[in-house]
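Re: weekly structure request thread

Next one in the queue (470 aa):
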Amino acid sequence: MYIAICILLLHVTVVQNDKLQDREETMPTIDSDTLKWIHAIYGGLGPVLNSPLNRRPRRSEKMIIKPVPEQIHISYGDNPTEMVVVWSTPSPGVPSVLYGLVNDNKTEQATGTSKHFTFGNPEGLQYLHRVKLKNLTPGSKYTFKVQTDDEKSQPFEFTAMRDGYNWSPNLLIYGDMGVKGGAPTLLPLNREASSGLMDAIIHIGDFAYDLHDEGGKVGDDFMNRIQSLATKLPYMPVVGNHEIANEFSHYRYRFSTPNTDWPIPIDKMWYSFNMGNVHFIIYSTEVFFTYGPDYTQYQWLQADLIKANKNRDKQPWVIALGHRPMYCSNSDGDDCTHTFSRVRQSLEELFHTQGVDVIFQGHEHSYERLYPIFNNEVYSKDYTDPQAPVHIITGAAGCNEFNKICINPMLGPIKSWSAFRAWLPGLYSYGKLMIANATHLQWQQILSVNGQVMDDIWIVQRHHGPFKMR
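Done, posted below.
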C-alpha cells in the first residue's frame, strides 16, 4: 500500500516536472497569489515548480552599488550576555549594529569585522559582516538594526539568552532544508519563531541545496528566506555533506558559532554551549568522509564531555547533534546502513561511556526515532531511565533532490531498534525539543503541511551520567 502511494506520487511529480521543462522558455511569470496557490496544492509533495526568487539584477561596471544589508541572522556568542549578528552586502562598507532594550529610548552601537568572500562564491554577495553584541541583559528583549556605511536594515527583535541553569529551553530542530524543497516547512517555522515560545533553532546540516550552487546565488536566496525567523531566534548551524564544496567555505563564512574564530576554521567545525539545564554539543560527521581532522575532533569531544559530566548538577541533560546518523532504516546504501558505519565506529562508544542522553541527526530525508541502543543492542523498549543514548533522525525539512520530492525510502522489515519511522513523499516535518525540567524532556515531530503532531514522546532520565557497558 505504502509503496503504491509512493510510486503514484513520484509519477505525478515527475510528469509535472517533465512538462514544465518542455515549456521552460515560454512559461509566463508567476505572480505571488498564484505562487501561494501552487504551494498550497503541491507543497505536500514538494514544490514541483521553480519558485521565482527576488534576486537583485546582475551588476554592471557602471552601476553604483550601495552596501544594502540582507541575509541577516543571529547566533549565540560565547556566553548569555552576547549575541552575534551576521549579514551580507553587494559592496564593501563599515559594519555596525544599532541596538537597545525594547521600550527603552537608549540606543547603543557596536562595530565588527568584514570579510571579502570569493572562494566558491563568484556570483553571490561577496561582502560579509559580523558584529558581536556584548553586555546584554540576559532574558531581556532587544531591538536592533544592522548598518553598513549609511545603509540600514529594518528593525528586528530578539531575546537574549536567559542566564543560569534553573530554566528550561525550547528549540526547533531539523535538518536538510533546501531553498525550494523547504518552502512547505518555512511557513510553520516562521509561525513557531513568532510565537514567543521558542528560544533557538538548530539546523542539523545541509542548507539550501546547495549554498555554493549557481556561484553562491542559491546560498544568498536561502539566507534571505530564513531571515525572518533567523533574526528572531538564534540560528545555530551543524555542518553537513552538502557544505563540503570549496573547503566548506560557504558554511565557514556565512555562519558564526560560539567560542570559535570567524570565518570558522576548517579544523574547528564543532562547538558546544550551555542553555539552561542542557549542554549542547555540535559535532562534524564530515571529518570521517573528507580529510579530517577526526582525531582532533575526538580529543575535543572527549574533553568537552568529561567537563560536561562534572557539571551535571547544573546541566543534567547532555544532547549531541551531528549530520550523518549512526543507524538508519533507509534503503539507500548510506553510511548508517552499513554494519561498520564510520560515524558509529568512531563516536558511539565515546557518547555511550560519557552518558550522552539524546543524539539528533539528519542526512536521511525521512524521520526515525530509535529505542535506546548501543552496539546494535536495544537496551529497552521505553524511554524511562534509558541506559543508552536515544537516537532521533530528523532530516525531513525538505531538500531539493529527487525532482524536489526529497525522499529516502525505508523498505524491508522494521529493525528491532526502530521505534517509529516516516518516509513517504510529502511528509515534510520538523522537530520541537521542550525541556520540562532536570528529569523530563518532550520531543515532537510536526508535519509541515498542517501542523499535525506525527510523533510525540517523553524521555525521563533520573540518573544522568555515564552509561555502563554490558
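The first helix runs from residue 2 to 22. Confidence is low (pLDDT under 50) at residues 1-30, 34-52.
Next request, please.
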